[in-house]
# Entry
Amino acid sequence: MKLYKKEGNTVQVLGFPTEEIEKGEYLLVEDPKRCRSLVLQVIDIQFANIPGILEELLRNSTDDRNIYGENFDPIEVAPHITYIQDARMLVCKIRGTLQNGEPSLSSAWLPSRSQSHIRKLSTTSLLANAKVNSSRPINLGEARDSSSITIDAHLLDGKLNIVTGKKETGKSHISKLLVLSLIDYGAPVVVLDLNGEYTNLGLSRTGEKTEYYKKVCILCPGENFKVTLAQTNLRVVLNILFHALDLPGTSAREFRRIWKSLKEQDALTMRRLGESIRNRQCNLHVRDALNSRYYSLVNSGFFTDNQEEAISLKESFKALQDGGALIINLRNTSTIDRQIVVEFILSKLIELLTQWRLRAVFLFAEEAHLYLRETYWDDIVTRMRHFGVFTTFVTNQPSTIRENIYRQADNIFLFNFTNEHDLEAVSRAARVDAETVKSIAHDLHPHHCLVLGRVVRDYPVVVKVRALDVQTMGQTRLFFTDQN
Amino acid sequence: MIGQLPFTATPRYNFPTEYQNLQLPHNFIELSLRSMRKLDGECLVPAAISLSDSVESHPSLYAPSPSNYESQSLRSIPLKPSQQPATIIAIDVSNIKLGETDSGLLIAIRAAVVWMRNRQYRYLRLGPFPFHITEQNKQKICHLFRAHNFQTSPNSQITPKLTDTHNRISNLLECWLQMNISTRSQDSIVLWDGSLTAGTPDNPMQFLSKLLETARNRLNRILAFAKTTTLRIGNQVLTDLTTETPSPCLIQVKSIPLNPSTPLRFLGNIYVTRFARSNCSFRLDIDKNLPIEEGIAAVEQLLGNDMLYQGYPETLRLAHIYSTFTASEVIGIQRFIAQTHGLRIIMRPNLRRLLFGPFGKGVDA
# Structure
């Protein structure tokens, strides 16, 4: 391989057919005189612009018709010609510099074009050089060169992560892997499970209970997940009424009075709340508005007056203290009910974290745009992070995540996208250049993921995500079942 | 061609049996290898690559300069394409300068033979053959090769200038191929690129006569097409001659007087082709010892059997295409020589470009 051209952060390297290089792989340009090396990542492979190649192709294209022939080449020059014609141009991005084994993100120097030696850099060496320590290793899978890729759980701690890719590429799979790995290190995890994909996280593929069985708690709103009004504070209920049920401000003020009155009487139950609204002497429209919201709460089945039916999130989290996951199964929940449940969960989480009843929690939110209100996005990225809610968004519609989220994301696990609009959305991430995202993500195979961000010390790495012995629930239900 | 659907079984590659053994003499390959043996450690200054550098060995390079040409009587011959099946064979050779070494020149030569039978084309490419020509070995190269082909005494030949040697070697290869084809084929139309002018260092009278005789004895008809010519009728270049006769037609140039002192001799009847309505005309030489009617019948058979592109036979066009070097091939051959013979490739500053910038010539500009 030879250095050919550098423009900005892009370096073109001339490669030859005998050198097996794929997109996403790393190259090390060693300049022996300066004792420094430039770390490059291949983001695209093109044919080298060989002079005369068009004439050659046109000449050979006649072979496709009814022209057949033979070449008598006793001196065997032809392989050398083919070698030249198959030369390729590797378009690379500079990822940093290695000097005396010390990595730096500097690219303010240029190695010698004539003297430099270029070689492939294995992902293991790259991550070792980049000092990706693994005091709490999470084995993600293997790189293209079959070396194992391990990230540090520390680098997910306190961070904002995004898992995105098109359908059936393995997003939920890596999310499950991260959830289980965090459980291994004693972390509490909450999963907002839109499609009920995580409900069998404690079972192996054969249906047997695994070591995680007791650490995974599945909560189905309206079934085994009900709460009493007494467990809920006014702010949470008002959030639900405002954001999930669109209650107008005037009506909210009346509701506040009703709530205070019931609380003073120590009668915060759904039944008494209904009676109070019905008997309230107030504007007819306000009463009607409150009544309709009340029935929405009742119909959600999420609130109960039966103390035995209700569960305490505080207790549930206590059970997760040594590591575990609370899976909120939103599969059979309507849109409004989903919002009610999520409002409750997030408010409760903040409450527990503010009171230091919980140290921190890892929140996995699948397709969050379907249940997360607008203002929560900023909250999650800025305010809630300080309380100890470390969110991982999982989505197949990257455009539903706002640009500022991408800009502040610490880690991105990017699967294949072919649509340019989707790639455009993801390319707004601040931790990598748009070209890399667009070029590499476009050609990722299923279950291959481009890992960007802190977990890989800003060296984008392509990983084939390892298999898990967990019952898969994210598979699409098919009508035609007689397939091979 | 476009309308043909590929429903037929893939045709097996199968040369006409008489050409299967068409191989170069070992001497030629050895010559190529031997010439490069002493290259080890030498420096190569690659030649600037331009496709126009790929030179066909001859066309009318040795055509006589106009002397006392006067207005000659011309005859237009209308042509009627004949559908009578015929095998058409075309031969072409190209050479290219790869660069200069400390001691000489590096060149590459390649030949192509294309056969057309039943509207199907077959080709055989020979080479590329790299040669390292130095002052020390150029004589040897020419003599060895010439002796092999012409059975003439090595001492009887004049050694060409170093810069002309590559044209001479490729011309010799072409002659060898022409002889081989003439000997092995029968009742075919053989297309050459160039003319039937004898008496040049590359086309000695004796050899060309023998070649044509051999072809005639095997019932082959040689048609030599030259794209350019220096021959003139009056003040007009031969290929600019016009006629009222609708195409396809030939314009026969009945006689062109030659300066008595020149050793050059025309061994063919000279015609100007007007095969298509386009403006392209070519000089066509047909063996003089072939009856005129037979020569014209051969042209009519060519028109009825082969495709024409701008009035030029497709078989000959393919032979040219297959023999010519592309720039990527030149780089490939340079790499081959550098790797197998330890040649160091160095780039010297281009003085022309340095001095004249965009006002240089050709690839220098």
In short: The first strand of chain A starts at residue 2 and ends at 7. Chain A is about 30% helix and 25% strand.
